[in-house]
Amino acid sequence: MKTAVAIARAISDREQRNATLKALRNRLAKFESRAGTDHERRRVREAVRKHRTVTRAASAAKPGAAKPSAAKLCRKKARTAKPDAKTSRHLPCNCCGRRKAKCTCFTKSRGLEIASSFKRKVFRPIPAQVQKSRIQTWRDTGDMPAYMRQIGWTPTMRYSWLFPIAFVWRHFSNEQFWAALQNIGAVLQNQPPDFARMEKVMRAFEAKGVSYHGGIFFSGSSLTKYCYGNAGKLAKLITCTANQDFITREILALKVMWHVASNMKRDYDSLQRNPTRQCWKVCTEKFLAALQAHTRGIFAHYSLKICLDGVLLSQPCLEALVSWWPMMCPAYENELPKLYPKCRKKQGDLFLAACHFHQCLKASFPKFYLKDSLAQTCWMERGVT
């Protein structure tokens, strides 16, 4: 009965979404949050932007308009400089962990070579595109506000549960489906999912012709080969066949992710007890290496990336520790070399380029974190910005 109610709500949500997309005549609106408060925030933001544009144009058109005094310009400069200075002062650079004034990553060695190839003419229109975009932060996206409503953060959460459950949620990105899972006890805090119950709900949704996905990610389709076992004794790789039942394949993807995470409980507990840049790097690199050992193709980088997006929302204090990020995703591999011709499509080069890109974009958006800057490359790849 609870599943039936969730399916009915999902159908209603689908009809409302389709009506919204038809009214907006914008196929990219499917990536936007449709909540009333989010629509209102975007409406106000666009109205303010339009008002500023009209006001500036009118001032420029006035002949002999009085120029602002030097004192007024100084006050304006101080007002605009304070947030940036305050934000920069307390956040270390992701590349090295030092303050920006002491960072030498782009003044020597490989970092200098990559930074020297930076195409400023290509970058120049990007801040304006981001400013005009309807999707700027996670609050504007179609799935992350729902993620925070469903997962959020409580002090009792363990990182050994949060990391894999963030991936599971983003794998579906569907609030109604997740509510159905919670109602039957398939997903409980600090406990592995009940995959049998999860599959039952998935098949119930499929039988009614309702998608259990939010239309953002389809990680199951990126799983081509997998295996179980510990790092020391891995089983033989099993190939996912084209005629394999898709739900079975998706459950396999979730089980592999959870199997890898369960073997890393000690590492997650260490990160939770001792949150440092080194612990973050060791934990996330080990997680990726384990995923790569258990799977083939882009599944590992892709899965870890969407997992970390959720983890950093649930635990924002980890933002200052991000010293490593999974970079072998199509958006990063395609967009960053356009800006940095000397950047090779390798993890180290791409991460250095990403850190430099973040520093450049942060000049226009002081409140952006690394994940926000990198998200813009994803939206550029999809043509949203």
Q: Strand order across the biggest sheet?
A: 1-4
Q: What is the tally of helical segments?
A: 17
Instruction: Give the N-to-C terminal Cα separation.
Output: 42 Å
- Structural class given helices, strands, pairing? mainly alpha
Query: C-alpha Rg, in Å?
Result: 23 Å
* H/E element order: HHHHHHHHHHEEEEHHHHHHH
The geometry reads as: globular
Give the number of DSSP strands: 4
Q: State which percent range the strand residues make up.
A: under 5%
Helix percentage range:
55-70%
Q: What is the mean predicted local confidence, pLDDT?
A: 81
Please give the largest β-sheet. 2 strands, antiparallel
Q: What characteristics describe this protein?
A:
4 strands, 385 residues, two-stranded antiparallel sheet, mainly alpha
Structural write-up:
The chain is an all-alpha fold and 385 residues long. A hairpin with a 2-residue loop joins strand 2 (229-230) and strand 3. The chain has helices spanning 2-24, 36-61, 70-90, 109-116, 120-123, 125-132, 144-150, 159-172, 175-183, 195-207, 246-262, 265-273, 277-294, 299-314, 330-339, 347-362, 370-382, and strands at residues 225-226, 229-230, 233-234, 238-239. It has a domain at 138-326. The strands form 2 sheets. The chain has a two-stranded antiparallel sheet. The chain has a two-stranded antiparallel ribbon with strand order 2-3. The two termini are 42 Å apart. It is globular.
